[in-house]
């Protein structure tokens, strides 16, 4: 298949994710993910998706690298489960996927099963504020207002040396969202056109 944008209906977890993946298990299936896009953001998840841009427009390579380095990963506002499935294929021992939209949970479970990681990805409508335990990586693509609101709930869930990828932002919102997650340290602020994200870690 020629290089370039993946065809509609297929999702690539990205080159950086493959480079950072612990163990890189199931590497034969990681390059292209067969998924049913469904409703990408979930009906109840206020994601800031770029219309028509596909997953590459919604998720930077940094986000996908973050997902790939996890042993335990949490995808908040999982939508159709693209990052959840990617994290599982890239070596995460367990992936917790949550979304307030029941349709998103159905899509995530179906896509996890389709990619052979149904036992690794556990999807539910559990509110983010009710999550327990800690995660090496947390990704949340749910917009600035919701990210700020959930900061007190998500920060305690991040393991030492973990990464938290916050997206669904405009470039102007990055500093405000990052401030809500202090005292974490910003390690990346990827941007593309009017889309932006911020990746933070608890390590000073």
Structural class: alpha/beta
CATH topology: Rossmann fold
CATH homologous superfamily (4th level) name: Vaccinia Virus protein VP39
Number of helices: 8
Order of helices and strands: EHHEHHEHEHEEHEHEEE
Q: Class in CATH?
A: Alpha Beta
Task: List how many beta strands DSSP finds.
Answer: 10
The Rg value, from CA coordinates, equals 15 Å
Helix content: 25-40%
Q: What do these coordinates show?
A:
30% of the residues lie in helices and 25% in strands. By secondary structure, the chain is an alpha/beta fold. The protein has a single domain (52-201), classed as Rossmann fold, CATH 3.40.50.150. Helix 6 links the parallel strand 4 and strand 5. Helix 7 (144-154) packs parallel to helix 8. It is globular. The model is unreliable at 1-32 and 39-60 (pLDDT under 50).
SSE blueprint and pairings:
Blueprint: E1 10-11, H1 15-20, H2 27-30, E2 33-34, H3 54-58, H4 61-68, E3 72-76, H5 82-89, E4 94-98, H6 102-114, E5 121-124, E6 135-141, H7 144-154, E7 158-169, H8 174-180, E8 185-188, E9 191-192, E10 195-201
Parallel strand pairs: 3-4, 3-6, 4-5, 6-7
Antiparallel strand pairs: 1-2, 7-10, 8-10, 9-10
Quick summary of this structure?
The protein is of the alpha/beta class and 204 residues long. It is 30% helix and 25% strand.
